[in-house]
Design goal:
Immunoglobulin-like, globular, Rossmann fold, 5 domains
């Protein structure tokens, strides 16, 4: 602002005509800039004592946990809304906080209903402070996600904060929630499917029944028991073999309680799955898969699934938050996944698992192997010698199918690789070469082979993840390298079924946006229609798809949905479901006494409000700018 004021002064004194009203015009320009500076700065900590009587705001928790019922059968929300109406009648202003923040008139609270899936107070405190609050009263059941952030925000913004002491936050009756339903993402037809349920809450009964259903038909009833009081109980189950296809599993607590919205969980199991784009299998723990998975997901636009081998015939999903979460996959299911994958990435291949890799990936037309020893290199079709110790620094990218994609990458200064396996010449195209400190010659680090339509990339050294571990140029080199290799590997192959348009999750969490994978429409446009079965469309729009094939649409209410996606490549139909479950009641109750921040000192009982919430500075800016414009015209200036 100081630079702007100086520039305005310089223009008026050096460039404008020396009219008699020039000082007044310059003063008007400087006044406008000063007003803008005051609005942006919000002086005195964002408050000024010109707001008249102290302003009280009520923040009413409008998350779903407020629908729980008290022991006498009354919803917690009813008591809180009645108290908010009473405070509104005394002059308080009411804000509803349930994920978002919105104002509501006190006499309209009877038509409002809690619907949020989050109890976040800090954003509502900030909104109230910006609107001129001097004192904030919170009405909540105490199941908050950000109590510390809310108190910190109140102290930082200079407003008083307290939980209501009259209503007190009536507690809900004892209740149980189905915290988790864990089942494998894929299984082989005819093979029993194992799973696990976890029930959490206040156990007031000796035992509780949990029914497990497949496609709406009950299969198992589990009985969980324990001592009265809070805690978690779990039970394992096994379902008989199922026919191929997508199977909808549901687990439900057969016990009436105060909050039914957390009594059922849903999951989908693919029997003999046919949709796998890129499959990464790590045969031993390491950092490489953690960095490689997101790169492949971003650059190929195909669905990417990663598994870590944790036993002789057991593979665990590496991304517990994404598709495929919820348990381990057996060897037979993994072989089925490998056979259907468009690209198989095997990390940590050595003598101990060479036979498994060769048997599983023998049919894979696209394969990337990270070798750990001579046998691992042989699994990728490369004859190599034993590992050579030392630090190996990448020096060049010789002519190869990926050389064009690697043009411009600076290899100097990248972290060294380790455990390089020297390869014999004439065994494929060398895409990357490295030199050991003190040696004269270079050795292949990455070899690409293409024979009879089958493409195999073999990494002969370890430690690429060190590049991704560093920001800036090393991380960009990592991304460029494996993006090029992934693009070369999948190029020319028919798009696998997993590249077609589909939701990233068959069961979408309540209140979450729906993420889509649209590999077949990547970089183009797509018409998407979503509707309830037999009902009118709830979404009918055209979308531009990014180059990675990822996009998202707003959240839908709980229920089953059908979709139809039309792109230049194909037309896809399918179904997904938004589950009813919310974990609000599984969150521990916060002590309401901690929701306390002192009222601003020195207010003298008068309301302090942020300067930017007053209309005065905005009217001042408009007035002086108009005055300057009229004055310039009357003085003959442009």
């Amino acid at each position: 602002m100081a630079l702007a004021a100086g520039f305005a002064t310089w223009v008026y004194l050096r460039w404008e005509l020396a009219v008699r009203s020039r000082p007044l015009l310059l003063a008007a320009r400087l006044a406008a800039l000063a007003s803008l500076a005051a609005i942006l700065w919000n002086p005195e900590g964002g408050r000024w004592a010109g707001g008249g009587a102290a302003t009280r705001f009520v923040i009413l928790d409008a998350s779903l946990s407020m629908t729980a019922r008290t022991p006498d059968g009354v919803a917690v929300w009813d008591g809180a809304a009645a108290r908010a109406q009473a405070l509104a009648a005394e002059g308080a202003r009411v804000l509803l906080a349930g994920g978002g923040v919105r104002a509501v008139a006190g006499d309209s609270l009877g038509m409002a209903a809690p619907a949020g899936v989050e109890s976040l107070l800090a954003p509502a405190v900030a909104v109230a402070a910006e609107a001129g609050a001097h004192e904030i009263v919170v009405l909540t059941d105490g199941r908050l996600q950000d109590p510390v952030a809310a108190v910190s925000a109140a102290r930082r913004l200079g407003v008083g904060l307290a939980a209501d002491t009259v209503w007190g936050g009536r507690a809900a009756a004892a209740q149980l929630g189905l915290a988790r339903l864990a089942v494998p993402a894929a299984a082989e037809g005819g093979v029993p499917v194992a799973g696990r349920v976890e029930v959490q809450g206040d156990w007031g009964a000796d035992s509780v029944a949990v029914s497990v259903s497949v496609d709406g038909a009950a299969r198992r009833v589990l009985w969980l028991s324990g001592e009265a009081g809070p805690g978690m109980r779990s039970a394992d189950f096994s379902l008989g073999g199922m026919s191929p296809g997508e199977r909808r599993l549901s687990a439900r607590i057969e016990h009436e309680d105060a909050f039914p919205a957390d009594d059922e969980r849903l999951a989908t199991v693919r029997i003999d799955p046919e949709e796998t784009g890129i499959l990464l299998v790590a045969w031993s723990p390491g950092w490489e898969p953690r960095f490689l998975l997101p790169v492949l997901k971003q650059v190929t636009g195909l669905p990417v699934r990663g598994f870590l081998r944790t036993g002789a015939d057991r593979y665990h999903a590496m991304d517990p938050s994404g598709e495929g979460a919820g348990g381990a996959v057996g060897g037979s299911a993994m072989r089925s996944l490998v056979q259907q994958a468009g690209l198989v990435v095997a990390v940590g291949v050595d003598e101990s698992n060479r036979a498994i890799v060769e048997a599983a990936a023998g049919r894979a037309r696209r394969l990337v192997v990270f070798a750990r020893d001579v046998a691992g290199a042989a699994a990728g079709g490369v004859v190599a010698r034993g590992p050579v110790a030392g630090e190996w620094y990448v020096e060049e990218a010789p002519p190869s199918p990926v050389a064009g994609d690697l043009a411009g990458v600076s290899w100097q200064g990248l972290p060294p690789l380790a455990g390089l396996l020297p390869a014999e010449e004439g065994r494929g195209r060398v895409a990357l070469a490295a030199r050991r400190t003190g040696d004269d010659g270079t050795q292949p680090v990455l070899v690409l082979r293409e024979t009879e339509g089958r493409r195999v990339a073999t990494a002969l050294a370890g430690g690429f993840w060190r590049w991704a571990f560093r920001d800036g140029r090393p991380r960009e080199a990592y991304r460029r390298l494996w993006a090029a290799v992934g693009g070369w590997a999948v190029a020319g192959a028919p798009p696998p079924p997993g590249s077609r348009v589909r939701p990233a999750q068959d069961v979408v969490p309540r209140g979450a946006p729906v993420r889509w994978r649209a590999g077949s429409a990547a970089g183009g446009e797509m018409a998407l229609t979503v509707s309830a079965p037999g009902g009118p469309p709830v979404l009918d729009t055209a979308l531009a798809v990014s180059g990675s094939g990822a996009l998202s649409t707003p959240a839908f209410p709980p229920g089953e949905y059908e979709y139809r996606a039309v792109s230049a490549a194909d037309t896809t139909r399918g179904r997904f479901e938004v589950e009813q479950f919310t974990g609000e009641m599984l969150r521990p109750v916060v002590d309401l006494a901690m929701l306390s921040a002192p009222s601003p000192a020195g207010a003298g009982g008068r309301g302090a409000r942020p300067l930017r919430t007053s209309p005065v500075p905005y009217f001042l800016v408009l007035a002086v700018l108009c005055a300057e414009w009229i004055g310039r015209r009357r003085a003959g200036l442009r």
